[in-house]
Amino acid sequence: MTRRGDWSQLDESDVRVRPGKGTRPRSKRRPEHADAVAAMVVGKDRGRWTCAVDGDADRLLIAMRARELGRTPVVIGDHVDVVGDTSGEVDTLARIVRVSDRSSVLRRTADDTDAFERVVVANAARLLIVCSLSDPPPRTGFIDRCLVAAFAGGLQPTLCLTKADLADPADLLAKYAELDLPVVITRHDAEPAELRALIANEVSAMVGHSGVGKSTLVNRLVPSALRATGVVSAIGKGRHTSTSAVALPLPGGGWIVDTPGIRSFGLAHIEPKDIVAAFEEFVAPAEECPPGCGHLGNPADRGCVLDDVVKRGEATPGRLTSLRRLLASKAGVDETAPQD
What we know:
By secondary structure, this protein is an alpha/beta fold. 20% of the residues lie in helices and 21% in strands. Helix 2 (170-175) links the parallel strand 9 (156-162) and strand 10 (183-185).
């Protein structure tokens, strides 16, 4: 037997070596979470997500993002799988372990020079672009940019005009007549019955400048929402009243996602081809344009063939005008369409 402190009789076979990090191959297997339940993300607050199990507004739970997801973004409208305590009881916490592929995304950037995309809402079928006809006055630049984001993200854009008791919508509607947009007109002194019927049993996202009456509409559609409403400042711009996006259940079925009031809608992440794709009659001809053609019809776009499509009677002049207005809004060169 070796005496304590006498190491001369030991060799390497007598020494136990503790394995270091990395000596054991890391398994690539991940938990299957066969017991996970499906849910829809309807709210977020400081790293915790409120989820409706199976899209049921009466079965809410709070969940955190599982470590295995890393920094996978989870946004309002996402369809997720959750495990753990899914009872929804007070002080319980589940884990989001999977995020399903998205059928649509509403993205924006802070401005046209910001490369960082922000996914505002996922899986919405419709984008309600809320615009007041007066106080504050309508801003077509903002509408155009929302249209571009909807077309590129796979949402059905719908123009929702408020305060029709203060101004006639005819002039504004004429600007968008060629786009065949669904349009809903509301008044402060009447219930939004047409809007309620249009968005029933689907997920709709609502965007608009502060002060256009967006939160007032939400409160009428979802009386239990109690979203804050504000006033318009003396310079014609609204004050921010909604500070975070949230999905609210509609009484007759479906969800409305109320987003914070915004003053700009950056489109740095969108390419001109994404806009052209929304105009079926121009998609194939645009492929024949010279490389780098912006399709705007200016001298820099020498060789643009879109005008020939109109000359051949394959598209109306109004459709081409609408396309070019949206392209100009994306490019930031349309001075007649302010962004604010």
